Amino acid sequence: MKKNTARLELSKEEMQKYGYQIVDAIVEHHHTQHEKFPVAFGSREEMDNLFLEEAPESGMDASKVLEFVLEKVMTNTANMAHPRSFSFVPGPSNYVSVMADALATGYNIFSGGWSIGPAAAELEIVTIQWLLKIFGFPKKKGGGIFTSGGSMANLTAVATARRIKCGDDFSKAIIYLSDQAHSSNIKAIRVLGFKKEQIRIIPTDNEFKFALNKLKNCIAKDRLEGLHPFCLIASAGTTNTGTVDPLPELSKICKKEDIWFHIDGAYGGAAVLSAKGKHVLKGIEKADSLTVDPHKWFYQPYEMGCLLVRNHKDLSHTFTEKPEYLRDIEGNTSEINFYDHGIQLTRRFRALKFYMSLKTFGLKEFRDAITYNIDLAEEVENLLRGSKSWEVVFPATLAVINFRYNPIKQNYSEKELDEINQYISHKVVESRKALLVTTILNNQVVLRMCLINPRTTMDDVTETLDLCKTFAMEIEEQMTVS
Ligand SMILES: *Cc1c(COP(=O)(O)O)cnc(C)c1O
C-alpha cells in the first residue's frame, strides 16, 4: 500500500510561523481596535465579488490564505468589542479568554463525557459552581451547563421545564412571558413544538415590567378552562431597556401555582457582581432556571451561554438517553457527563475561557468593570438630563440608556422627532464612527446605548453625542428649508 501523504499537516516550522502570524494579528487587533471603525458595510454582491469561487482542488501557501483572510474577511465585519459599539448587546471580550479558546481548539478537547475529559468536565463543574454562588443558587443541589449562547440556554430551559412539569403530554401546557421578553424565548417555545395558542404574551406596565394583575388573571382564566400553566419566563434585564421584572413577586406566583420559574438574564444577569446590580436583581436566586450569557457582560468571546438550574437532577432527567455505544463510558453520578445535561453530545471546551480569565483577572476586576459600566450609563443619563437638546426616554438601567434628540425650544411633533432621530442614527452608522441604532419605545423612535464595554470612556460617549448633534442640525436645516 502506498504511504498516505494526505495528512492535512504543516511542518513544525510552518506551524510555528503560521501560529505566530495569527497571534501577532490578534494582538495587533486588540491593541489598535479602538482606532478602527466599529461599523462595516458589504452587500451580498460585494461579498460575492470578494469570496465566491469553487472549492479549490489544489491548495496554496498557508500564509497567502491567511494574508487574504486578514485583509478581506476580518476587515469586512462590525467590531462588537469596539468602545463605540453601543448597539444591540456588544461583545467586549478579553484577550485571555481568546487565547483559552485557542488552547481548547488547539488541543481539540471533547467536553461531552467525563471519561474522555475528566479535567474538562471538572472545570465545567467548578466554574458552574462559581456562577451558582454568584447568583445565590444552592451550591450542592444546583447545577448548570455551558451552551453556545443565550438562545440555546433558553431552549434548554424550556425543554427542562416541560419535561419536569408536564412529562410527555404537553397538549394543555401554557407558557407565560412578557411583551418585552427576548425573541429567542418564543423561538425556543416554537422549536419545541408548542402551538401559538399555548403561548401567553402578557403586557408590561409603564416601566416595561410584567403586569402582575394581568398575569394572575390570565393564569386563573387558563385554569378555569382546564389548561395547564407550566412555565413562566421573566427577564432580568430586557434587551430594550435593561428592565428587570418583579422577580420576588413572580417567584411567589410561580410557587403558588406550581409553575416553573425561568429567568432570562442573558445580558443583564452579570450585573449581580456589582452592588447596584445586585439590588436591582433581587429575587434572581429564586429561579428554577436562569440563563446568563458569558459572551456578553462576563466579557467572554463568542460562543458562550450558560443555563443554571436550582436542581441539577432536572437536567439529567430531561436529557439522559442511553444508546448502547455510550455504555462503556457511563461513570458514576458525581462524574458528570455533560452530554446528559443538555442537547449536545460533542461539545467544545467552553469552561476553559471562563476559568482562565477569572483566575487571571480575579473576580474583583470583573466586579469593578461591571460597576464601571453601570456608573457610566448613569453618568451619561445625568449629562443628557443637563442638556437642552436631549430627552431621557428611559433612565439608565443595567448599563442601558434610551434617549432622543428633542430640543425644548423647538416643539417638534412626534412624527418629526421620529424622523430626526432615525436620521441621526442612520448618519452616525453611515459615518462608521459609532454603532448606534434606534429602538422603539412607546411608539417613539429612540436612540439606545448599551454600555457594557469596560473600555468605553466618557469621551467615546460625548464625542458620539456631538456627532449626533451635527447630524441633528443637518436635518433640522433641511426641515426648515422644505
Ligand atoms: C442576547 C440575548 C439572548 C440571546 O442570546 P444569544 O447569546 O444571542 O443566543 C436572550 N435573551 C436576552 C435577554 C438577550 O439579551
Automatic annotation (TrEMBL):
What do the Gene Ontology cellular component annotations say? cytoplasm
**Annotated keywords:** Aminotransferase, Decarboxylase, Lyase, Pyridoxal phosphate, Transferase
Sites of the modification N6-(pyridoxal phosphate)lysine? 296
Coiled coil stretches, renumbered:
none
* InterPro entries for this protein: Aromatic_deC, PyrdxlP-dep_de-COase, PyrdxlP-dep_Trfase, PyrdxlP-dep_Trfase_major, PyrdxlP-dep_Trfase_small
Q: Which GO terms describe its biological process?
A: amino acid metabolic process; carboxylic acid metabolic process
**Listed GO MF terms:** carboxy-lyase activity; pyridoxal phosphate binding; transaminase activity
Report the transmembrane regions from the record.
none
Keyword Ribonucleoprotein on entry: no
Q: Is Transferase found in the keyword set?
A: yes
Cofactor(s) it depends on? pyridoxal 5'-phosphate
Q: Can you tell me which family this protein belongs to?
A: Belongs to the group II decarboxylase family.
Query: By its UniProt entry, which PANTHER family does this protein fall under?
Result: GROUP II PYRIDOXAL-5-PHOSPHATE DECARBOXYLASE (PTHR11999), MIP05841P (PTHR11999:SF70)
What is the name listed in the Swiss-Prot or TrEMBL entry for this protein? Aminotransferase class V-fold PLP-dependent enzyme
Protein species of origin: Flagellimonas sediminis
- The organism's taxonomic lineage, starting at the top: Bacteria, Pseudomonadati, Bacteroidota, Flavobacteriia, Flavobacteriales
